[in-house]
Amino acid sequence: MPEDTEPLVEEKIPCCSTNPRSTAYKVVGCCFLCLLSFGSYFCYDNPAALHSQFTDPNVMGLTESQYMGLYAWYSWPNVVLSFVGGYLIDKVLGVRLGAGIFSLFVICGQFVFAAGVFSDLLWLCYVGRFIFGIGGESLAVAQNTYTCRWFSGSTLNLVFGLQLSMARIGSTVNMNVMVPLYNKCMDFMTFGNRTLGMALLIAASTCVFSFICTAVIAAMDRNAEKQGAIEAKISLMDVFKFPAQFWLVTIICVLFYASVFPFVAIALPYYQSVFGLSPTEAAALNSIIYIMSAPLAPTFGLIIDIVGFNASWVFLANVIVLTCHLLLGYVTSLTPWVGVVGIGIGYSMLASSLWPMVSLLVQKHQIGTAYGFMQSWQNLGLALVSIAIGAIAKNQIWKQIEGFFFACVAVSAAAALALIIVDRVKKGKCNVNKIKMRRLEREAADQDLLDGEDNPAYED
User: Fold this and answer.
1) Which residues are listed as membrane-spanning (predicted)?
2) 28-224+239-446 fold
């Protein structure tokens, strides 16, 4: 009898630090998961933070079109590779190895980008951003896959909000740190492009930090994975079986983000020439969207977890940003802070409500492929928009730029309204209240048990 009693005591009181079902284990995992893309988001917007230096004839001397190319070349590889990366995560590499490989691409890309600036070779800068893009978007796919793998149901929106919050803290720190860092580098070297290259090289340390976080979360995930778990098969043809709601979510993703990220990239000279802000004031205003998203994204995520209705929140976010672009472009007598703060609210709201919906629309073994496919289209949109905005900005026609952003969000808002209607007709889960969502989750869990696919290591 005593021999049988001891194991039972250990089973009832597992160590929280190693038990993947404990809250403490998941909290620690969530922290490292949120830091997974800190470095890539910090370095992604290095050009926006240093816009004046990149376009200064005494430093790099880029035209607006060449400058926007730094963002276009980031996006071009991901028109295809985000989808391929998601498929590789689901089918070939697995999320742990995939995240590690893509994190290394981010590091290499930033180093090559810095080398291009240091050598004053624009083509090498583009190569660096290309490599960086290969890793950055696929790493985001891996992060989303981890999130859906570890969390579900009533915590999913909150965790996505926290994940976005940490990513945007990276962007915010970048906006406020890179210029002082550049100025500090000038104390050691006064040759323009080499000073800029050194600042970008130092920024690469954040990517190394994120790689360390990737290794830690991989070790925790390996410990959490149940031995002998059944792996579902996936085929590339599964993409054509995704429901109509998924395609509407993808359209919203492409067009909404096309009105935010390129706007931040080009906004510094806009604030200065149209609203008469000083460079310091313009930089502070340009970072406010990301600063706001840090507390607002998890807050909205928590609220959405409580009340549900994800698709309605997506529609509301589009309406808010649509109104704000209208104010920024055509009501210039009003302070730009109103429009930019509104975009920050809408951006935070959409990010916390849109991305979790993918897990409601596809099966668990298809999540990486679905997120990859969605981000491939997003990057195609960002690449094309970056080229278009660079061409329009060449002539400093700011009303045309804002009109372009307004049109993007208008179509996105129409797609969000269609999502609500289609989901209701198909009796889907994208726009239901939390009570109904929990009932549907219980039914899905019961079905998983019948199919023999339940994995207690990831239960919420």
Assistant:
1) 70-89, 101-124, 196-220, 246-271, 283-304, 311-331, 337-358, 379-398, 404-422
2) Growth Hormone; Chain: A; (1.20.1250)
